[in-house]
Structures are given as C-alpha cells and as structure tokens.
Amino acid sequence: MSTAPAHASTRDLTQGPIVSTLLVFSLPILAGNVLQSLNGSVNAMWVGKYLGEAALTATANANNIMFLLIGLIFGVGMAATILVAQSMGAKNLVQARTVIGSSATFFGIVSLAIAIIGYPLSRYILQWMGTPALALPLAESYLRVIFLAMPLLYLFAFISAILRGAGDTRTPFIFLLVVVVLDVILNPVLIFGLGPFPRMGITGAATATLVANAISFVAMLLWLYWRKHPLWIGRHELHLFIPQGRIVQALVIKGLPMGAQMVMISLAMLMVMTMVNSYGVETSSAYGAALQLWAYVQMPAMAIGAACSTMAAQNVGAGQWHRVDGTARAGVVGNVLMTGALAALIVGLDRQVLGLFLPAGSEALASARHLNHIAVGSFLFFGVTFVLSGVVRSTGAVMPPLIILGIALWGVRVPVAKLLQPWLGVDAIWWSFPVSSVCAMLMSLAYYRWGRWRQAHMLSQPSEDEETVATPAEVAGTPPAPVCALRQRLPPQTPPTTADTP
C-alpha cells in the first residue's frame, strides 16, 4: 500500500521544543477525559431523573463491571502505545505496522471472548456483586448490551492508543467527540422512543453507547483509509495480522502490570469507601461530593502523564535520552502548575462547587469542605508520581511503578486510614490521602533517579530467522517484507551518560 509521508498524519515528538510540544500533545487527551466524564454525567441524569433510582442503581452496578473490564485491558493498550511510539521514534514504520497487526488481532480475540462469555453470565455477575433485587432485571438488560458493545469499545480504545503512540492525539479526540455527541443525542431518543424509534427504557441507554461507538469506530477506520495514514495496513499486508509471539508476549507481560494498577486503585477506593460508610450518610455524601470534584482535579495529571509516556517512548526509540529526561521535567512542572491552579480554584470556591452535588442546606456541606481542604492537595503529589511512572514505563519498566503504587495504597493509605481512627476519627481517612501521595512521590523520584529503568526493554530479542534488516524503502513506508523477515531495529536502550541524568 502506498502511504502518505509520516508527517502528514503523525507527529514527531523527538524534535522541537519539549515544553510546547508536550503541552500541545497533551491538551486533546485532557479534553477527551473531560468529554468522557461529562458524557457519563449526562447519561446518569437521563437515567436517574426519568427512569428512577432503581434504573440509576442498575447502570451504576453495570458500569462498575464495564470500568473493571476496561481497566484490565487498559495496560495492554498502554503497552501497544509504547511499542508503536518506540517504533516511530526509531523511524521504523515496518515495525510499527507489525506491532499494530499483532495487537489488533489480540484485542479482537480478547474482546470477542469477553462478549461471548459475559453475555450469558450477566445476571450471575450482578448477583455476585450484590446488586439490589429491584434493580437486578434492569441491570441485566443494560449489562448484556454493554457486553455486546465491548468489542467496539476495546477496538476503538486500541486504535486511539496506537494513534497517540504515533504522535496523533487530535484524531482520537475528534472521533471521541463524535461518540459523545451521538451518545448524548441517542440516549433520550432510544430511552423514550422518540420519532420512529421504539421505547427501550434502560436498554436504550446501553444501545446508545453501542451505536455511538460503532458509528465512530467505522468512521475512524474510513478516515484512516481515505487519508492513507502511514500506519494503515492494506489488503496486501494482511499477513501482519498474524500474531507474533514476542509482540503478544510484550502486550501481556508488560501490559498486565499497568492494568493491575487501575484495579489496585479501584480496590483501595472501595476499601476507603467502606470505612467512610461506617460514619453515616452525612459523611458518605460529603465524601461522594468531593469525589465528583476530584475526578476533574486529577485529569491534568493523567493527561500529562499519558502524553509524557508517549513522548518519552518515541525518544527512547530514537536514543535521545536527554529529551526523555527533559520530558519528565516538563511534565512534572506542567502538572504542578495546572493541578495546583485547579486545586486552588476549587478550594477557593468549594462552598459553591460542592454545593452543586448536595441538597440545599445540607449539613454535609461543612464536612465536604473540611475533608476537601485536607485531601485535595494530594493530587499535586499524585501528579508527580503519575508523570514519572509514565516516563519510566516508556522503556518497558512496568513492575516498579506497580510496586510503588501497591506500597503507597496498601502499605500506607489503607493502614493510616484504619489504624489512626481511634485518635483522629474520620480525619484519619482524609489525611491518608496526602500522606500516601507524598510517600508515592518520594519513592517514584528515588526510582527515577537511581533505578535501572533505562536498561529495560519492551520486546524480547528477535529469533535468528528475524534477523534481516529493514531496507530504507521499507522505512519510508513502502509495502514491508513478510513478518518473518523483519528485524526490530530499535537502538540499544543503554543508560545515558552522567550528563544526561537529572
């Protein structure tokens, strides 16, 4: 397949000013995170306000399962992003398309397996979660459609991830915007049966998600084909979809620890929620209101961290270690400025913003303000950890960030919150957030400075029958040789010289 020049649809993150490049690259990721949160809020409004509390409970239980499944595969998507980014940094389009082909097959098989297994087991999964009996039939109807939509959700996320790895955050944002707009429009249409559409109730909310993702996914594929994107795999390259063992191995071995971090965070939050619930409805509602705000406070750090991981990976592929360190410094400074400004704004206006999520005159407002003043600053430290972890993972060092997070959450946050309650009461829970976040930041800084992450690798060494060097024509984007004739040409990932260390 003939391809357009790489610069037409991708972004070279190995050149240009680091700070401005990182900022421009991360803004669409941040905007996409905000869009997804707003979309969830709008959907919850339609279901809760017009279908009732049982329906809202049903979607909450089903969405917890969906988020867990997405979290499990999140790390595999990150592994694919890093592999593509390293290949693009090395100017090796052959390797990038090989990674994409193997990864697409892997994602497709996994998503279909989850849909096939999950659909008939929906009721049993919900019962295992303790879904209230009144909401169980509604939740089952909703979750079954979500399982049918899972292949589309996974593949849409996968394509978005590899585009970000190639330096393109604008295209995923545009098609995510299409998903959100369609979802918002289709929700009332399918829930209430407007126009020629049947009234589907809660099933309509899930169907809206399925249809919106299907339309946007197909549109994105057509756009990539029409633009002759450098990473598009044409009909003459279908052999690239045959999975390569070491690529699949990298996706699993490197991806699962990154996905495990999402699961670990979710479990720790459940443990904290259990402790908060023991103090009654007022404290629980105060914490729930604060959580709504914190979802937005952490978005800059998550966007900058994801951008740093991709930008660092491209520079790892190019062997430009000074730019890897420069990316880490720019990411930390950017996080402190953006997260700090947002946290300060929320503290200054906390009476107004927390009041949006609580009934007028609620006694929980004072508790929400109190806990917010203690805990919201922890996201500054969380952001530093997230940025440094993203840079460290760009080489393939995925276990140390997981260990650091495990120690911070289960060795510090949960014990502090639980063991200090006899002396501090509920404040022990709130103080556990900044204490654990500071500990995670210090451990991350220490590992970044003295750890051996610069010597890590994403891919195992190629076998002897893969030791053919790609030609300049292949690197320029002409149809590649068969997979077995490829040689992965990433430069050696040796530690930088002393002058390159921070």
TrEMBL record:
Alphabetic keyword roster: Cell membrane, Membrane, Transmembrane, Transmembrane helix, Transport
Membrane protein topology class: Multi-pass membrane protein
Any coiled-coil regions, as ranges: none
Entry's localization field: Cell inner membrane
Transmembrane spans: 65-86, 98-121, 141-161, 173-194, 200-226, 247-273, 293-318, 330-350, 370-391, 398-416, 428-448
Record region (Disordered): 464-502
InterPro entries in alphabetical order: MATE_fam, MdtK-like, Membrane_Transporter-Flippase
Compositional bias ranges of the Low complexity kind: 485-502
Domain of life, source organism: Bacteria
Record has DNA-binding as a keyword: no
Entry protein name: MATE family efflux transporter
